[in-house]
Amino acid sequence: xxxxxxxxxxxxxxxxxxxxxxxxxxxxxxxxxxxxxxxxxxxxxxxxxxxxxxxxxxxxxxxxxxxxxxxxxxxxxxxxxxxxxxxxxxxxxxxxxxxxxxxxxxxxxxxxxxxxxxxxxxxxxxxxxxxxxxxxxxxxxxxxxxxxxxxxxxxxxxxxxxxxxxxxxxxxxxxxxxxxxxxxxxxxxxxxxxxxxxxxxxxxxxxxxxxxxxxxxxxxxxxxxxxxxxxxxxxxxxxxxxxxxxxxxxxxxxxxxxxxxxxxxxxxxxxxxxxxxxxxxxxxxxxxxxxxxxxxxxxxxxxxxxxxxxxxxxxxxxxxxxxxxxxxxxxxxxxxxxxxxxxxxxxxxxxxxxxxxxxxxxxxxxxxxxxxxxxxxxxxxxxxxxxxxxxxxxxxxxxxxxxxxxxxxxxxxxxxxxxxxxxxxxxxxxxxxxxxxxxxxxxxxxxxxxxxxxxxxxxxxxxxx
Length: 465
Hints:
Elements: H1 2-11, H2 17-30, H3 33-50, H4 60-63, H5 66-79, H6 90-96, H7 98-110, E1 119-125, E2 131-136, H8 139-157, H9 173-185, E3 190-195, H10 199-202, H11 205-213, H12 219-229, E4 232-235, E5 238-241, H13 256-272, H14 277-280, E6 284-288, E7 291-296, H15 301-313, E8 324-327, E9 333-335, E10 338-345, E11 348-358, H16 360-376, H17 382-400, H18 409-427, H19 442-450
Parallel strand pairs: 1-4
Antiparallel strand pairs: 1-2, 3-7, 3-8, 4-5, 6-7, 9-10, 10-11
Helix pairs in contact: 1-2, 3-5, 3-8, 5-7, 5-8, 11-13, 16-17, 16-18, 17-19
């Protein structure tokens, strides 16, 4: 009502004011929730972009607005995810009533009675046989974090460096790989393939808050983020961390990727600063979340020591065992699941080109997923098997088959061969004798009858640059 009153006063001096006001109000009502959120984000981004020194001091009132919470709920629902420590699932919220649930959450946020709950930690197997921790906040906390992220993301997007590609709107692994290939073609073939030790678990809260305060001075937003950083971890029947915890942001939290980017933006800014040692030596950085490479014509020990010193001041540590320097023209390196190498052109042995292909580890991951699925579902019919496998195959192929950047043809042939072997054995097992596919070429039959994806015919493949 206050906004309408201001608008009415503004138009009082002009002819046709009531009609203009009616049109404005009607349009505002007709805007979808997503459009209203996008409109706010655009304004925040433009303000931050135009005034690099501007600090936002009134943001919290946007977090609990109904349209903001609805958009946040849609995002959380689309990602699904397991219940948190309270056991409340997405379907539970729907059964209770989404509008009622969001109203209650909005009121908690408005009256500042909202309190984050503990984060349930589970261990996820890694390809190398180890495990990595995954934090699972409650659905309520995921909605609140998403609403906050929708507000602060466009502000910091205005400040982020071009060299950052992970967990950012309209940016992807494709862009990071294109940047790497571009630098390689420029002759920056000496690469420091860096690895940070437990980055998400070691981000210092005090230093992160300093980064947040460069743009946000709304105490209520900062207190909200502080709550999530201090949320205790529930693991193996015990609560850990909590208020005494001074480092880390839980992997799996909706707010974690943007916080991780805000903190590592300091690294990007220093490396890209024209006065820095990195820039003076012609070194470029390509970063995707906590994975990054430094690239140059020559990267000496001085550059590595400077990087270690910088990270140390940030409270971070370079994993010496996994960090390595390579001359990419002589030795391949992996980044984001891809292997990047300097290959001979089969059509002209005197020529070479930069080839980007799925890494062997990435190929093994999809094979392991197919194997695990078939072992767990021994009596599914051909239609169901094809539909379920297609979900796995489509995700893998869409990621690795990047037209104009990667060239996964060989990997796709190996994947096809694996599917042929596994499916033939799957349907020729004694327990499948009653199945129509018993004794047949199962892979070919599933492709023809039920639309199973043939990896070698999926998409048109990459194009060499």
